[in-house]
Amino acid sequence: AAAYSWDGRLLATAGGNPDAFTRDNSVRLWDLATRRVVGGMLGHDAAVTGVAFSPDGTQIASISDDGTLRIWGVTDDAAG
After folding, report:
1. What is the pLDDT of residue 12?
2. I want to staple 48 with a disulfide (CB 3.0 to 4.6 A). Which of 3, 9, 14, 24 is the partner?
3. pLDDT of 75
4. pTM value?
């Protein structure tokens, strides 16, 4: 699962290393200009199955196979 920020600068992805096809139950935040990870959120106990940005881009919601919904803050550093 993946979601773009409202301004198109950030991408949130559901956990794991995209090159190794593994999952680590995390959410990663990518800067699309640099193609680098600028943040990570850990806390789910099973695979993350969905991510979404809030309309103002200050939060990310994630859902997991562990039955939880988590809300994460997007830091000023990550937001640019």
Report:
1. 96
2. 14
3. 78
4. 0.83
